[in-house]
Amino acid sequence: MTLKVGIIGCGSIAQHRHLPEYANNQEVEIVAVCDVVKERAEAANVKYGGKIFTDYNELLAFEEVEAVSVCTPNYLHAPISVAALKAGKHVLCEKPMATSLAEAEEMIDAAEKSGKTLMIGHNQRFVPAHQKAREIIESGELGKIYSFRTAFGHPGPEGWSVDGKNSWFFKKDEAFIGAMGDLGVHKTDLMRYILGEEIVEVGSFIETSAKEFASVDDTAVCVLKTENGIIGTLAASWSYTAKEDNSTIIYGEKGILRLEDDPKYSLVAQYTNGSVIRYELGAIQTNENQSNSHVVDHFVESIESGSAPLITGEEGKRSLAVILAALESNEKKTIEKVKTGVHA
């Protein structure tokens, strides 16, 4: 059974992740590629095949397509995903899934009504070190969890986006949010996943300090509190000029878990009794270090098995909700409660 896939948006994320990962999956055939810039769709076609489109509506009308990846600028994620689900296609949507909770709920609703799979591309959950950390915390090995700090930062998307400094990443009307949407939402999703808890309150400072040409944030520091009172910080930035930082440290009663950029040991557990366990689980993926993110394979597997993916629309929405609360906190200069839905 071969899954016939279409890619909507042939920019960097499609070129580095979606297209090659679909191409490497034996169960998949790429049958359509779409980009408003025709040359990009043509370049994808040369390398991976697939019928060329410049209008996603026409791709969705192409009956052969059974599933799509939505790899467009953020403001188009929800409208395209909803249209695709209504057209009876399975959807893998890049993060952040939407620009508001109302949009996210519309996507979830469309998936329910169509009976099709909706998955959000939060790849951090598939990193072996992150899965191991979740397991250790769940087992109670660290005892009560007190605090955490997590960061995701690099010099900025101009280094790898197809449009460089002119990229949609820097334009508020297309990106909606900057580093917070690009990187911060990965980390809110990761912390919810590793801790196994929802984040309920947020305080934040969000600035544009490094990219004077941008109309979105590039440096953010947030304080988060979970339902059981675990407090921690989250930094998301495009102003880490020399080296990427993708690290998380969790502080518990019986020990500390370090998920840092160690080339060999991506998880180090230090216990209060003096023992240290170094896990060799492969380096944490960064823009410089990209192998299979497992996102595409998991999406394909979910469709074939009919089981819910690890990152459903609901999960994507909850991670987005934390970012929306952070934006509100920065704007109002208050601590904000994380809303769980439009009406909640």
TrEMBL record:
Q: Report the domain of life of the source organism.
A: Bacteria
What is the official name of this protein in its record? Dehydrogenase
Q: Name one Pfam family in it.
A: GFO_IDH_MocA_C3
Q: Which residues form the Gfo/Idh/MocA-like oxidoreductase N-terminal domain?
A: 3-122
Do you know which Gene3D superfamilies this protein is assigned to? Dihydrodipicolinate Reductase, domain 2, NAD(P)-binding Rossmann-like Domain
The cross-references to InterPro entries, in alphabetical order and at most eight, read: Gfo/Idh/MocA-like_OxRdtase_N, Gfo/Idh/MocA_Oxidoreductases, GFO_IDH_MocA-like_dom, NAD(P)-bd_dom_sf
Domain GFO/IDH/MocA-like oxidoreductase positions: 130-257
